[in-house]
């Protein structure tokens, strides 16, 4: 394959005694004529290759059919009515609906009505405490730099906004519905309806990643801010201090633990925390004395399961857990925390997002999904102890039969790691996708996927590795895959690949690696450290230049996860695995598809551009190195049609280079 020319320039940074070459620095500028010309040539190269991929249309057809299951979210109850998201097979985006006390369903916000091009997304929404108003955030072309508006639910009129620079801002309404706390430009502010945003009171001026909470009656405000591998927390009693100047008292600061606070209807402060418990525990305290020295244990740490959330209903406490990445919900006495039983779940899958009525009641709603079950909403009744379906996914789909197996294997340092393998019955090596993430404490749990199912249906194997850096085993598991221990993640992934080969699931000639965002970093590390293990790789929206990742996108906010090149010791960690800097000439690299998105404001597409140029210049084998660039979309939400196109292209590429044929679609 003849690649577009990319000049290697003699750019070398001298950092803390390291000479760090960066020959493709010029590709960091997306607007330069040279970069534009190079990207256009790469896109032409990709389109030419894509047109030759066998079964590409069949992959797209099957992904689209399975995406037709749609989606539905848990209800948020306000003022006797409920707000919820739903997307049907015919809709490009999820739509926000409200069902009033009379049971009549009304459309509130349909992104396609606002922008028929499909480029506008609904990023976040929050009704006020009475359900009369809803604050909502829109962004365009995937940039996620949301504008916040307020809608009058009765009239559908916009009564406030837009307020810019509100990227996924949490909103905490005051009880009168005339003001709310929110985050703008990484600062906490108070906005009163009808006043200019520039006049908003500044509550927390330091630029950080904040979370906000408000009690059911609007009395207690909680503020969270990321801090290293934990968070700092404050609480204010708004009944005794002005909203413009809330008396914020410290709950925890510099504790190196993650704690989620909430004040219940009983007046107690509930604290879901990893402080002193890496897998998490639930404590209670008096909101007037919120410090850790006053916390009282309610539900203790489990030796295997990781605590995730809780809800209170009917005088009972429900606690959500994941045990080896499978969900369970336990039922406890609210006063003592003593376990009484468990909530029946539909299967071995993922349950979460528990919601209740703010005025109290005996019902709890939650979502449930597993590998063959589209996400739907279920209801648990504390009076009967029964779980029943509440709202199924709106679309009917036929899913393939498959088997799920959980494998345990040893990583390079002997640490036991788990992996879920999905496949149809059969034996012998098959084309396989190994997927991983391994970062930020996020867990890979069972879920319905219109990306995974077509692959398995066609006879392939799909494996999800639960690597260190994730949250499958709690805070300690996360810490063992971050900062100076980041290499553990890549070692776990390589060991997973070796396990799949050793157990006869696949061979290196039939194995593909796949990951997105931080998972793209994982795949970049895998293909540069162990190119012998993989025939193909898809590296989507990846971080790859770990020396300069802090200089763009949301990079500065990830220093607590990766470290900083400004620190001599931490630069050594980063250089040790930075994929861009480990590309070596004369190596036969796997067939690699790097995907980038023009509106991505989280991970700069420059990472993939520079890596693509480096790999194309270095590889000695016949397998292609390609760049798929897509404009007008970003890192996160996109229209269903664009998501289908991306998934189909990724599957077609991996199938072509691992030997899997797409099924004929009737």
From TrEMBL:
Residues 447-659 form the Peptidase S9 prolyl oligopeptidase catalytic domain. InterPro entries: AB_hydrolase_fold (IPR029058), Pept_S9_AS (IPR002471), Pept_S9A_N (IPR023302), Peptidase_S9_cat (IPR001375), Peptidase_S9A (IPR002470), Prolyl_oligopep/macrocyclase (IPR051167). Transmembrane segments: none annotated. It holds the Pfam family Peptidase_S9. It is an enzyme of class 3 (hydrolase). Keywords: Hydrolase, Protease, Serine protease. Its EC number is 3.4.21.26. It comes from the Bacteria. This is prolyl oligopeptidase. Residues 6-391 form the Peptidase S9A N-terminal domain. It comes from Streptosporangium vulgare. SUPFAM superfamilies: alpha/beta-Hydrolases (SSF53474), Peptidase/esterase 'gauge' domain (SSF50993). Gene3D superfamilies: alpha/beta hydrolase, Prolyl oligopeptidase, N-terminal domain. The keyword Ribonucleoprotein does not apply. Belongs to the peptidase S9A family. It catalyses: Hydrolysis of Pro-|-Xaa >> Ala-|-Xaa in oligopeptides.
